[in-house]
From TrEMBL:
Protein name in the entry: ABC transporter permease
Record key words, sorted: Membrane, Transmembrane, Transmembrane helix
Signal sequence bounds: none
Transmembrane segments: 12-31, 76-94, 118-145, 151-174, 186-205, 236-256, 295-313, 343-368, 389-417, 429-453, 460-480, 500-522
Ranges in coiled-coil conformation: none
Highest taxon above the source species: Bacteria
């Protein structure tokens, strides 16, 4: 069963882990290039330690601010979140989703029990967690012996252990929530909700002025990085305690899973068994029923990202303006322009990546439905060949519209909450929101074209989003010129005063044209 799980999810595991490891490989050398010694990074370390904005995003940066501590502080925060998201998607796809779709019946037909299947899913997640933590530790150890003396052996191992324990706890909590409230449409959302809640608990623990709040990091897997403190305390005793906590959580998850009925949860919300009759008048209505959870979830997530981080901008500015080296790094990595507007554009770029993922996901799911024969059932009703894909595209456009509206409204609220005044703030937020809508429309067009012309390689639709994100966010690190970075739609925003109208309009036209090509391809090709 474990080998089967690894084989079935090998691509998901491979691409997620490669992305995490590449991210870790890139960041320590960039710290060294910006701050080659402790003396040069002293001012920025002291300012960051008293900055609420950076504490909310990454936690407390310990003194004296070695390269190892910087890596565990900033890069570690990102890796813990990304690794947790990966674990939610992996575990759900191994355990509850096959049960909901009926595929697990084949496993039971082979004589396997439910407990052995759950144990195989847990074991697979554990193997991936240990592998991720071990490779992260190995990468840091390689830097230690190749070029960066400030990275210690004990700290590298503690960092890897932290990543592993965070993933194990996320897996166990996801399983517990799915056993209690899981149903066919919310498996991933329950797990991602737990990751978001853990991040908010960690944020409160690191920013609260109350002394007791720091103990909340023990409750949040995202806060375990602060508890173990790689490259500072390297607390093996605390790591052992957290490992015992993970084992206990897995035990609770096993108990709850063994007691729930097949493809059901232990707890039912009031009225959850009362299904009102739905009137499906069109393929658009059908797709909105299927994807409304995706629409609501991503609208809230994108809105919260902007609402949480935009009010923190003013607390970040003093630590940047007071240090020349930091300003030089910021000017290299962020869009050009006035610093306050620059950070607003940067936050919207992050939201744009999330929005692009939100609108491409239904198209990826559409091809999965085609493989399972569901689209064949839709086509048997007499609709045109391209109509099922067009219904999915309509749901994607509804998601794009909803997320854009939520983004603009939450950005305006965040603008109101921050203490300083942003010149032409309302128009800035509206233009930024419209810009991310164009970004997502371009990537949606690519996904539709792949779905219509080459559905067997639909996962290649993620590559443009990944490439554009790397070019926009990490382009200066790869010494890309400004002209080269302009090939990424994420680089362009109408919020920038010097931004012309035509680049984004060009990307929008290309996206619409590619979408039309994809629909034409769906009309002419056979089903998978």
């Amino acid at each position: 069963m474990i080998r089967l799980n690894l084989r079935l999810r090998r691509m998901l595991i491979l691409w997620w882990l490669l992305g995490i490891w590449v991210f870790l490989i890139i960041t320590p050398p960039s710290y060294v290039a910006t701050y080659p010694d402790l003396a040069s990074r002293g001012p920025v370390v002291s300012s960051v330690q008293n900055n609420v904005g950076t504490q909310a995003m990454y936690g407390h940066l310990p003194s004296p601010g070695t390269i190892g501590q910087l890596s565990a502080w900033e890069t570690g925060a990102w890796l813990c979140v990304l690794s947790s998201v990966m674990m939610v998607l992996l575990f759900s796809s191994l355990h509850r989703k096959p049960e909901s779709s009926g595929l697990v019946e084949y496993v039971y037909a082979s004589g396997r029990s439910g407990s052995s299947r759950f144990g195989a899913a847990i074991a697979t997640g554990t193997i991936v967690s240990v592998l991720n933590g071990a490779v992260c530790a190995f990468i840091l150890l390689a830097f230690r012996y190749l070029s960066i003396d400030e990275i210690t052996v004990a700290g590298s191992i503690a960092f890897g252990v932290t990543i592993t324990l965070t993933m194990l706890a996320t897996m166990a909590i996801t399983s517990i929530l799915q056993s209690l409230w899981g149903r066919g449409t919310n498996f991933n959302r329950l797990g991602l909700l737990s990751v978001g809640a853990a991040f908010l608990i960690r944020m409160f623990a690191d920013t609260s002025s109350s002394s007791w709040a720091t103990h909340l990091n023990w409750v949040s897997p995202q806060g375990w990085r602060t508890v173990i403190a790689p490259f500072t305390e390297d607390s093996w005793l605390k790591a052992l305690v957290l490992a015992i906590v993970c084992a206990a959580l897995i035990g609770v998850a096993f108990t709850l899973d063994s007691r729930r009925p097949f493809d059901e949860s232990l707890l039912h919300l009031r009225g959850s068994k009362r299904y009102r009759e739905r009137k499906i008048r069109s393929l658009y209505s059908l797709n909105m029923v299927l994807h409304r959870g995706n629409l609501i979830t991503w609208s809230i997530v994108i809105g919260l990202v902007l609402l949480i981080f935009l009010p923190l901008i003013d607390s970040l500015l003093p630590s940047l303006q007071d240090d020349a080296a930091t300003m030089q790094a910021v000017e290299a990595f962020l869009p050009a322009g006035e610093l306050q507007i620059t950070f607003i554009v940067y936050v919207f770029q992050i939201a744009s990546i999330l929005l692009s993922i939100a609108v491409v996901l239904p198209v990826i799911g559409f091809i999965g439905q085609e493989r399972e024969g569901l689209i064949d059932a839709v086509r048997s009703t007499g609709v045109r060949r391209w109509s099922p894909l067009w219904g999915c595209v309509q749901a994607c456009l509804s998601t794009l519209t909803s997320c854009t509206i939520f983004a603009i409204l939450c950005a305006l609220l965040g603008l109101y909450l921050q203490p300083s005044t942003v010149e032409d703030g309302t128009s800035l937020m509206v233009l930024s929101g419209l810009s991310i809508a164009v970004h997502a429309l371009f990537f949606l067009g690519i996904a539709i074209a792949v779905a219509g012309l080459a559905p067997r390689v639909i996962h290649l639709a993620w590559l443009p989003i990944i490439a554009a994100s790397v070019v926009t966010l990490l382009g200066p690190l790869f010494s890309l010129t400004e002209q080269q970075m302009e090939f990424s739609p994420l680089t362009h925003s109408w919020a920038n005063s010097d931004e012309a109208v035509w680049p984004l309009l060009t990307f929008a036209i290309i996206g619409v044209a590619l979408g039309g090509v994809g629909l034409l391809g769906a009309q002419r090709r056979n089903l998978l």
